[in-house]
């Protein structure tokens, strides 16, 4: 009998999609009339952003989301409707507004997620499982804000989707914040990868993060609680990953234009790189796949990801994303080269410290 081909696909689930409205201004003057130099409108939401970035690689990808008429039109306009596994939605889509000034400062005003009707959530969950099967997916990415289930006062049961995916042998990556992130941490068994940024990590662990060592120690708390890989995006300080193999840090040069969507681009880069689909070998002798996750379990595939390759591509794509004015990553051809520290100096101060 021939060996089973390794899984390659990635499915993203965006429980709370959004329309991203971005204004670029010369200088933002609060309390005054500001004239926009440029205005862009995009279908977004963190899972959509991740899928758009993954689609720049050879990895098969699909983005599951509730899709209204305006979102569908924006996807067609952007030429990426083929990536969307949209569940028809007659309700309104929230609008997130970004203000960019010439200094590189990003100001965001995000609308709260729109409550999801139980029947619609059932269709979204079912579509997610169909896409996992269709792509023979290696990863499910649950990304972004978690909306309320209409009429219940509780969030949509996204952890049920996480558990069912893990039971099928799919690795699950989660990128959310606040109360939703705390719910995930209380139930880490099915989660293979957790992706907080430094501010979310500080809030979650109640620890002040002023050095690389502080970030690594806080990330190890989540790893020791049961998460295989904790990947922390650190803004201008690069990216850090904690796993059974220890601590890795990667960094790439960037001139900041817009930070919105950079974390999504970096997560996409991590997954693509970890699947071995980067532009080439990240560096001689830096693969960490073997033995990374320990013995295989019924919930874990046997092929292990390459964290070093993933982290290098994450830092590269994240840096490339902040140099673009739009939320969505449109190209990776000019992405900067990242460098990797296998055992970073824990006393290195963060340029952007974080407090709880």
From TrEMBL:
It holds the Pfam family PfkB. It comes from the Bacteria. Residues 19-275 form the Carbohydrate kinase PfkB domain. One of its GO terms (cellular component) is cytosol. One of its GO terms (molecular function) is phosphofructokinase activity. InterPro entries: Carboh/pur_kinase_PfkB_CS, PfkB_dom, Ribokinase-like. Signal peptide: none annotated. Keywords: Kinase, Transferase. This is 1-phosphofructokinase family hexose kinase. It comes from Herbiconiux sp. A18JL235.
